[in-house]
Every structure is written in C-alpha cells, then in structure tokens.
C-alpha cells in the first residue's frame, strides 16, 4: 500500500509497470503489439505524460484486463492528492516572485492620460559660450 501522495497519472503508470513486470512484458514489446512507438508508450509508463482514456483502454484490452485494474480503488484513493490543492501548490511553487521595487511610470494627468511629447518641458538647450 502506498503512503506517499501520488497523482493519478503516477499511480496509473506505477500499476501498469507492476503489471508488465509480473507478466514479463517489456514496454517495447507492448508498444509493438499496440502499433505505437516505444517512446510514446515509455513516456506514459514512466509517468511523465498522462494516459489518454482511450489509450488506457487499448492497453488494458491488450493485456486482457479491465481499465479499472489500473486505477486506484476507494481504499487507495486517499493516497491521491486533492486536485485543487495540488494545483495551488504547483502554481505557488512555479510562480515568479514579484519585485517590491517601484517601477518608473510616466506622469499622468487627471483622467489617466499621459502628457503628449510636445507639452513636456524641453530638455536643456546648449548654447555656445560667449567669447
């Protein structure tokens, strides 16, 4: 029984890896039987990419099992994280930190408009020095 929280994708991939090991079937052999590339299936079996439900059904049919055999049961479902809290945790971990420094903003006028270039004060004009 798993005690660490895993995602549904990881759980399904782990169940499939265990099933393949018990039946002594390699990922390459299963991919060949399904007509898929080895890399396509390997990414899913490794848990890097989630299985599409149709693909999971094809894999289960090829192995002679039911799709539900690869999914968690109610007793193991409590090891899966809550999808909402997992999403918040991922976004908090990957969101960039905002700088606390103030950024330069052009001066604004009432109504939120910025002054046009021709109404700004001209820059210092350089004149030739008297001789």
From TrEMBL:
InterPro entries: Cro/C1-type_HTH (IPR001387), Lambda_DNA-bd_dom_sf (IPR010982)
Membrane-traversing stretches: none
Chain intervals with Basic residues compositional bias: 98-107
Source organism phylogeny: Bacteria, Bacillati, Actinomycetota, Actinomycetes, Micromonosporales
Database matches in CDD domains: HTH_XRE
Ranges for region Disordered: 72-131
SMART domains attached to this UniProt entry: HTH_XRE
Positions of the HTH cro/C1-type domain: 16-70
Record protein name field: XRE family transcriptional regulator
Positions with biased composition (Polar residues): 73-82
Pfam families: HTH_26
């Amino acid at each position: 029984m798993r005690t660490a929280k895993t995602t549904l994708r990881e759980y399904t991939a782990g169940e499939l890896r265990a099933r393949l090991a018990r039946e002594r079937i390699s990922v390459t052999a299963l991919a060949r039987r399904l007509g898929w590339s080895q890399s396509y299936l390997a990414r899913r079996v490794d848990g890097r990419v989630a299985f599409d439900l149709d693909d999971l059904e094809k894999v289960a049919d090829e192995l002679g099992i039911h799709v539900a055999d690869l999914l968690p049961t109610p007793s193991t479902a409590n090891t899966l994280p809550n999808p909402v809290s997992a999403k918040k945790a991922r976004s908090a971990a990957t969101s960039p930190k905002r700088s606390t420094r103030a950024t330069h903003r052009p001066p604004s006028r009432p109504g939120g408009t910025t002054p046009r270039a021709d109404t700004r004060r001209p820059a210092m004009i350089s004149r030739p020095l008297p001789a």
